[in-house]
Specification:
By secondary structure, the protein is mainly alpha-helical. It contains eleven helices and no strands.
Length: 228
């Protein structure tokens, strides 16, 4: 089925799961691991340190320790739950259509990312979306995940700039979608929005990279800096 026709017709069988999945995915995304662990377990909000960003890298640089694994787990699980819940909803209303299932993953992935970046329960101040976005890529297609995660890990390991790996992953997300997932215009538009959101959240990192002022990843505790 051509997905643009679904949007054009906008029938209840389509808009009910579409809107419901968007709401569920957004609120899943709002459960920001770095904020929850730092604010409610450590009693020291990560957003008051370093870059002020509520992401994994700032948490690791500020607090370090095994609780970083808890942050990773929370941000991975929420993306998995969002995509699975959205896919299940779409299957109930529009069964036996692989193209619609792909749409469900991108659609719920987008709203999960929006919840992560702009969580209503944390004053719309969230993270930059790399870990959640990378999990969404895994849920969509292993080849897409290999492209974005492979480049991210290689660039980060070679340069120690997490932000450079993040920018690569965001930029190549729509490329991987076109290569491995779908040529459907709706899917491609969603992939560009997903990648574009992550790039936009990293705009400060990009400027610092261009000026040679970006902080490199270290494994020392309490270093004030930035990225996801």
């Amino acid at each position: 089925m051509q997905l643009s026709l679904l949007f054009a017709r906008w029938e209840p069988a389509f808009w009910i799961p579409t809107l419901t999945a968007a709401v569920i995915a957004y609120f899943c995304g709002c459960f920001n691991g770095a904020v929850i662990v730092s604010k409610y377990i450590l009693r020291d909000d990560v957003r008051t340190h370093g870059s002020g960003n509520a992401g994994l890298t700032n948490f690791f640089r500020t607090f370090g320790g095994p609780l970083t694994l808890v942050v990773i787990l929370l941000d991975v699980v929420k993306a998995v739950v969002a995509v699975l819940a959205g896919s299940a909803l779409f299957r109930c209303f529009i069964p036996n259509d692989p193209a619609v299932l792909v749409l469900a993953k991108y659609w719920t992935g987008l709203f999960c990312l929006l919840g992560h970046m702009f969580p209503c329960m944390f004053h719309f101040k969230g993270g930059k979306g790399i870990l959640s976005g990378g999990t969404i890529a895994i849920m969509i297609d292993w080849r897409l995940a290999l492209l974005v995660w492979g480049g991210f890990l290689i660039l980060t390991a070679l340069t120690r700039y997490v932000s450079l790996g993040s920018v690569y992953a965001a930029a190549f997300f729509p490329v991987g979608t076109w290569l491995f997932v779908s040529h459907d215009p709706c899917i491609l538009i969603l992939s560009f929005i997903l990648g574009g959101l992550i790039l936009w959240k990293h705009r400060g990192n990009i400027q610092r990279l261009l000026r040679g002022e970006e902080s490199k990843l270290t494994f020392h505790h309490k270093k004030e800096a930035d990225t996801k």
